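Fig. S4 source data, part A: sequence.
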Amino acid sequence: MLAGLLFMFGSLQEEFGSAAAARTSLEAAVVASSDDAGAFSGLDQLSAQGGEVLKSVPDFPKNLALVVARLSDEARGANFGSFLLTVVLSAILAIGAEASLRSIIAQWPQRGEAKSAESRPIAGRLAAWTLLEVVAILPLWLILYLLSSRAMGFGPTQQKAAHIFFTNVLVWRVVMLVPRIWFRPGIPSLRITRIDDRDASTLYYVFCAVTLGYALARSVIGTLKAADASMNTVAVQSFLNDLVMGAIALAAIWTMRRAAARWLASLVGSSAGTLAMLKLQLARNWWAIGVFVILMMSIAFVYGMLSGNADAGVAIVASLGLVLALIFLESLFDFLNRAPAAGEKNVEAEGSRILVSALVVRCIRFLSWLLIVVAITEIWLFDVAPSLFSGAQHAWMRGVIRDISLTVAISYLIWQIACFLVARQLATAIPPDASGGEKRGKPVATASRLHTLLPLARGTLGVTISVLAGLTILSRLGVNTTHLIAGASVLGLAVSFGSQTLVRDIVSGVFYLADDAFRIGEYVDAGRVKGTVEGFTLRSVKLRHQNGQVHIVPFGQLGSITNFSRDWITLKFNLRVARDVDLERVRKTTKAIGLEMMNDPEMAQLIIEPLKLQGIADILDNALLLRFKVTTKPGNPTLVQRQAIRRIISRFPEAGIHFPSAASAA
């Protein structure tokens, strides 16, 4: 985990090229001093070339002095001390101008943010700050551009060296825009990563120091080449750069081991499971992996210097840079997933937009992972180990990898779009609740049916996409899928004969759904069991009893279905009143109670036909048994019945309608 890896990747190719040229010179020297050039092969040759580099180490200070003299003795040029002081002060001036402009323009969004932090979307504020960070680089670029021109009065070689140094300083500041935007030291409200300000400052300044070290190392190599230094000098300096930067990298890993561990752990989230625990352990112990990679990179760098084969070193740097880029992207995706929930005041009104944002983030995240994995695979498979394949096999294998990647990408995109469409329909089609009324978006009947069929359709589409993608990949690998399809057909036929119960359950389920016998959220009675439909698979249905237990019933065993949640429900209940009651007064009072309930906003949405008196159900010794009726919507009919009985008990005595007492019964 090094900030300079991305910057280093661009510079190592040039350094490796210089080292390869130095290696060619050293190899020629070794061959010229040997009676039998063929005696040097493998490790012997590397050892001999390393010996030549070691022999040139004592002369390295003298060679550096020659470079300094060459930079000082140019006509029209300043001496080396003045040149170096001017270049360093110019870079400091440019960096100071950048910092000053950033400090000035940063006050504008801070004042606006203090007034309307809640009203402005987080994405808009982040984009504004990012633009200001980019604008702050402009004075640095302008100053360095002007100072690197001939107006400085330096000689040609000095101008080349100054241009190399200024270019590396500019690249360093541009590269540092990424960690600055991600970590935001001192501005936690706009920080992409989920870490505190102390960890953000630690990571940012360590990244800044390491990247600056790589910029300076590259500037030294470039200056030596501009001054026409000998290949031995360039080779020794490259080895010294590798040694120093390796030490800096290890020190950086040790310094930010805890801060980076907390950063990586925040990307794991609060999910449980074996995979999450493994990720968490890797996040906490990332420094061990980092130390190992740095050591391997140093070994590969030295090997590339001596052998002229820089593929392994470049592959390690490129792979590590891609992994680092992936970690930064994961932080960005995590931030984008958090942003809608944190910035939206009315999530319900913005539900569709949030679903679209989540879809885009998921697709871009998957494609990023896929592209990086494919890139790392191709780097190691084709660049580091090209001898594994011939020319024709190389082209064929590369085509296979890319075709498989394209198939996987298209399949995933289709699946995610299907999930998005289903989720959007389900979000606007809320299943019925206790009220039984219409909800936002669609009527209850349509909503319930969508909740019943869409999950099944999504699962079926997922299986279809997986099968087609698998067959396509196998076909691209050269497998004859015709035999697989035929074998699968025969196997399916055999399974169908041997699993008649399973086939009966599946076929019965298809007909139940075709007949629209029940939907998710409806209360049904299947004879032996009853309950609310919570979900189902191709084989069985899940019923939740009102007491809490869950029944899993195969479709083939359901039999006849009684659905209590369709259209309307007529409730009938009986009450006893005194035998001398005035039935006309009872009828009018009951009608008034029914109209009162229809005017109640809470009850009106549940009642289809108001409460009314049906008549005398039975004549008892001391009372009349009266039957009442009310028609309600399905969902929670007992609520209407309880409200009706409560109002009857309260209103009847006021109207002179009395209930039989225990004394009258005696």
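Fig. S4 source data, part B ends here. Confidence is low (pLDDT under 50) at residues 1-41, 111-119, 341-349, 432-446.
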